[in-house]
């Protein structure tokens, strides 16, 4: 098992990449195995999906905010989904909500976020030439692409895309008669999701393997940037929970297409009993939420990791509580698997079981609060530099706190009886998971754009983008809390039948206007993104004066990331504003022997072990 | 080289990345089947559960798969000792027994159908077909991995200095074997 061999030591780096030759256009930019290209592919796919997902939400927001509006002007876009009297087709409304959820949760905030930043940052921050398996990585993207194409095609079916909400509860999703979208739309949804799961697993396995096996000399686990910890935990969550969704989806496929009765029982359609007997629809919910709950952490953890890095860099201060951050993320990861039934408090479950799940759910508040506290204490008395990335990162902390607080309310099984399936829930998860993860992703793009494209993004446009989006998100989701407490239910096409609820029409209208403005503001970002790729100001190697290894690569990292030998790591990634040091940052590859003026006594001790770290030789005799 | 011998670097504990990948892959399969078997238990606890006889042939197919695992181990040992003829024979035997297992599983399904247990119907039968079918599907992927190992062995690319491929292959095959034994016992005891 010892991976150290004294033979053929020096040749590895030079040899492996000396014979590297120029690839053709297709292998270089399309079927690429380079982690940086794959990351960009994920990012751009994610942005395209985000625009589409946002557009769908604007359409159903119009319906909710202005239920009596004449939508004939949307006919060129939506065709027959706008009926004769200029109203949105109610079934299409359900399809819109379903697709908005599916696209945003899976295609944007899982693939677009993890796919982009895990791929881009893991090799660069741990000091590796590429992922463990470039081929698997490429396969992962192209499975995602195939899945995207199928999901996209389903939008154009005559019977519409899946309409059973993103949680696809049977029997609604299992029976064609339940909803037009439960026919072919649902079939395509399931196929697309199966491919998506394969893609996620290929990606996740690769991320974990890379972090465990391909760290550079001296990069012990306690020197890893928090981003890498977050990506690793996310990948582990995916590896453990996505197979369960696949099993649920498979059983649903059997019920839909092969006549089994895993989830169906005692159903009558037009007075006729279906042959399916003995199934349990609640069983599906258990299987689904065993993935579904970890999935929300798959969405938020990478964003939290990116934020840790951005906040520490731009506060010019070491992250507060590095180990506490790791342990709180590990705690969140562990708890993620044992809280799923809090989504099912009103399914008639045993109240005692409900209390157990309530207790476990509320415990999640502890590691989450630790993280919130640590972000704020990192900012405390820092020399804060408000780059657009920093603003978005702080925005994430704000959403995480304000959305997290309502989680404590919803986690109580008794309160959930009132609040379940109201807009209060919608407001809660859009703040804590949706907007927070979205802000983390945007922050990441602003922060790492110089490394991705070698150009700087325009920060004035960044500030305008931030303030409109930040105010917009609160304008959209804050009023939803009030509507929800009042009992306004989610997933309803129209709720104007009761006079009591008509008093909330104006709030709904405000939400819609804010949503449209926020959506339009993203155009600023997209313009900035595309314009900066081509015409942006040239970036320097380390524009944010950051410590992690990716900033030691050339302005635009080449294939293999470092032209010469991979740098060796001697210190943790958060040596900002160290007393005694001449600069306010000391990159990870600067040895303690080079900074005697700022070393702490225990770090002076570590100078002795530097030779040892440099002497590490990785066994190159293992064939890949 | 000289300064290296003077200063012995500490060995680092690492695993070959392909071995690590195969173990993570195995973890995903475990979670996949864990989901099915726990769904099975939850559903079974609700009652309305048809009981049926498990065809005898599943006992024999289990034995066949265990034997194929033995051959897998023998081919691993042969590769370690650079005995190439033995290596190829044992890989072929593993493959053959794997194939035989699949045929026997199919015969088992026919047997179930003659008992009146179909994919459609009470979930107890449906689960039996789905679990055996999905294991069969994974076994087909195992056969593909074996085929690759066999082709590599013919090209003399598997030998005592290059054991990664055969080790990964053996790990996966033994896992599929253990997975079946688990499923078989599970389905036997929780009928």
Describe this protein's structure.
The complex is a heterodimer of chains A (624) and B (191). Chain A is mostly helical and 624 residues long. Chain A has one domain (11-538): Up-down Bundle (Cytochrome C Oxidase, Chain A). Helix content of chain A is 61%, strand content 1%. In chain A, the strands form 2 sheets. Chain A has a two-stranded antiparallel sheet with strand order 1-2. A two-stranded antiparallel ribbon of chain A has the order 3-4. In chain A, helix 16 runs antiparallel to helix 18. Chain A is globular, with a radius of gyration of 25 Å. Residues 1-19 of chain A have low confidence and may be disordered. Chain B has helices at residues 2-6, 17-45, 57-80, 84-114, 123-154, 164-189. Chain B is built from 6 helices and no strands. Helices cover 77% and strands 0% of the residues of chain B. Chain B starts with a helix and ends with a helix. In chain B, helix 2 (17-45) runs parallel beside helix 6 (164-189) and helix 3 runs antiparallel to helix 4 (84-114). Chain B is mostly helical and 191 residues long. Chain B has one domain (10-189): Cytochrome c oxidase, subunit III, four-helix bundle (Four Helix Bundle (Hemerythrin (Met), subunit A), Up-down Bundle). At the A-B interface, helix 7, helix 8, helix 9 and helix 20 of A face helix 2 and helix 5 of B.
For this entry, give a set of tags:
heterodimer; A: 624 residues; mainly alpha; Cytochrome C Oxidase, Chain A; two-stranded antiparallel ribbon; 20 helices; globular; B: mainly alpha; Four Helix Bundle (Hemerythrin (Met), subunit A); elongated
Just name the CATH architecture of chain B.
Answer: Up-down Bundle
CATH class of chain A: Mainly Alpha
Question: For the CA atoms, what is the radius of gyration of chain B?
Answer: 21 Å
Estimate the mean pLDDT confidence of chain A: 91
Please work out how many helical segments of chain B DSSP would assign.
Answer: 6
Proportion of residues in helical segments of chain A: 55-70%
Topology pattern of chain A, helix = H, strand = E = HHHHHHHHEEHHHHHHHEHHHEHH
Beta strands of chain B, count: 0
Classify the secondary structure makeup of chain A into a structural class: mainly alpha
- CATH topology grouping of chain A: Cytochrome C Oxidase, Chain A
Largest sheet of chain A: 2 strands, antiparallel
- Return the CATH class of chain B: Mainly Alpha
Mean pLDDT of chain B: 90
Order of neighbouring strands in the sheet with most strands of chain A: 1-2
